[in-house]
Design goal:
By secondary structure, the protein is α/β, with parallel strands linked by helices. Helix content is about 45%, strand content about 15%. It has helices at about 10-15, 20-30, 35-50, 55-65, 80-90, 110-125, 135-150, 175-185, 205-220, 235-250, 265-270, 290-295, 305-325; strands spanning about 65-75, 100-105, 130, 155, 165-170, 195-200, 225, 230, 255-260, 280-285, 300-305, 335, 340. The protein is elongated.
């Protein structure tokens, strides 16, 4: 190869439509160049095959702001939360104009004491924190303490504050509940008894799910009988026990709404009792465990979070919140939910 004809700094400048001095500042790592201009220089250098791409990339990466984002998710044994973590890890490297380091913790102990303590510890090490949690005074106290220290907090999946003081990325629970109710009204052959499983009443999302669910029946289908919800405490084992209890106590049960965690336990109970496919069942999240149940008729309908979009909206909101740390503002994003039957997966 003729070394005399390899692209030069002047060629990069011409391709990027900037001055030679600007390219030199980018190469030297000088801070007086806008990030957008740095990216334009990088793209131009790649386009013409500039010999100094290694140094250029490292200089541009070093000049980007570096953020550390912390996340507290539920137990690592639950596929849904592993899927959230995978979505966040996939999106983080694609975020423009910054470098994001993720600190993701899975909590086996979901007590408010432990969640509050882990929030404070993570908040001391990160620029912003995202958390899935039930509402409790100890958790609220920890969130308030972090925000007083100018560490933004994002609630994922379930809102912490109904008034919007805490950023939220998730679904409209009221709309989710009413959509689930619509399914029962239109799929059940006749009005009948409907069981409800809730993980924990302190999760705002689950309370809104149930509230929207009941409001729909009061408005449109009052002939259905809605049983009082049974708690699963976000446990598959307890969900299995509660489902078996519902089926035993109500042999004429027409449907079951799984409005909280533990759906794998519900699936197991339906199969073990021979009731799979005999009643309408609505639950959440398309996963490795729920997909087969939807295909074989154990589940009728699934409402699911759009995980890739949720990760994108979460990280983008966190970047904006950190950049506007002293300006306030709300970075809540209500996501559209996905719906699945066995005919569209």
């Amino acid at each position: 190869m003729d070394q005399s004809k390899r692209p030069t700094i002047r060629d990069v400048a011409a391709e990027a439509n900037v001055s030679v001095a600007t390219v030199n500042r980018v190469l030297s790592g000088a801070g007086a160049v806008r990030q957008g201009t740095r990216e334009r220089v990088r793209l131009a250098a790649e386009q013409i095959g500039f010999y100094g791409m290694g140094a250029l990339r490292s200089r541009i990466a070093a000049a980007r702001p570096h953020y550390r984002f912390g996340f507290l998710l539920h137990q690592p044994g639950r596929a849904f939360y592993r899927n959230i973590a995978e979505a966040l890890r996939a999106v983080a490297p694609t975020m423009p104009d910054c470098e994001i380091e993720l600190r993701i913790e899975f909590l086996d102990d979901l007590s408010p004491q432990n969640v509050g303590a882990r929030l404070l510890t993570l908040g001391a090490e990160c620029d912003v924190v995202g958390v899935v949690t039930a509402v409790h005074p100890l958790v609220t106290q920890a969130v308030d303490a972090l925000q007083a220290r100018n560490v933004p907090v994002f609630a994922l999946i379930s809102q912490i504050s109904a008034a919007g003081q805490v950023h939220y990325i998730g679904l409209d629970g009221w709309k989710v509940g009413r959509t689930a109710a619509w399914v029962f009204e239109h799929v059940c052959k006749a009005p009948g008894k409907l069981g409800i499983l809730v993980g924990n009443h302190r999760y705002r999302c689950q309370e809104m799910n149930e509230s929207g669910f009941r409001s729909y029946f009061r408005e449109h289908a009052p002939d259905f009988t809605l049983l009082e919800p049974l708690l699963t405490f976000e446990s598959s084992a307890i969900a299995q026990e509660m489902t078996e209890k519902l089926l035993n106590d109500n042999p004429d049960l027409s449907g079951l709404y799984v409005a909280g965690g533990g759906i794998t336990g519900t699936i197991a109970a339906l199969r073990s009792t021979g009731r799979a496919g005999s009643l309408v069942v609505v639950g959440y999240e398309l996963m490795e465990s729920t997909r087969p149940a939807l295909l074989d008729g154990t589940l009728t309908f699934i409402i699911s979070h759009p995980l890739a979009r949720m990760a994108q909206e979460t990280l983008a909101g966190m970047v904006r919140a950190v950049a506007a740390r002293n300006e306030g503002g709300n970075f809540t994003s209500i996501l559209p939910f996905e719906i699945y039957t066995r005919e569209n997966i």
